[in-house]
Write a structure and sequence with these properties.
Length: 171
């Protein structure tokens, strides 16, 4: 469990999309892994996300729809280390994409980063993931580097993106 929050504690209410963002628990892992399998395709996703629930710097939050029996429709996994929030993964269930859930999770990340005193947010994204890049750029992220052949499943490059939250934070 991430430090600073109680298990299952609501961390934000997302009214524009009628969802609620809460810290993930063991109960949501199957839904997270299923969303990952259809979108990100992380190797050993079940073990990776289970480990994230225990890692001190890690946060794994889900966007649930109370109107649909708390169905998990999106999730975000991130670390907060020192003064940086590192986005590891953000994904929305295929049947719920293009409804603002990803944008809501991105706003949640920005709110968390500001509340925790982070200077910046960073992430890596596949160069071919134009939808995600568009979301990140709309949120203020800029590409600062390219990691060639970063992804093991085909050797695709990753764009490293960063958002400085304070004018004093350097790129």
């Amino acid at each position: 469990m991430a430090v600073g929050r109680a298990v299952g504690e609501a961390v934000a209410v997302v009214s524009p999309v009628a969802g609620k963002i809460v810290e993930a628990t063991e109960a949501e892992l199957a839904a997270i892994v299923a969303i990952d399998a259809d979108t990100i395709r992380t190797r050993s996703a079940d073990k990776n996300y289970r480990d994230e629930l225990l890692r001190e710097c890690a946060y794994l939050d889900v966007l649930v729809l109370p109107s649909e029996r708390r169905r998990v429709v999106a999730f975000v996994n991130y670390w907060i280390v020192c003064d940086e929030l590192q986005l590891l993964s953000l994904a929305t269930h295929l049947g719920y994409q293009r409804r603002g859930y990803g944008r809501s999770l991105m706003q949640h990340l920005l709110d968390v980063a500001k509340a925790r005193g982070c200077e910046s947010l960073t992430l890596e994204v596949r160069r071919s993931n134009h939808a995600a890049i568009g979301l990140y750029e709309a949120s203020g992220f800029r590409t600062v580097a390219v990691r060639e052949k970063y992804y093991a499943d085909g050797g695709e490059d990753a764009q490293v993106m960063r958002l400085a939250l304070h004018p004093t934070a350097t790129i």
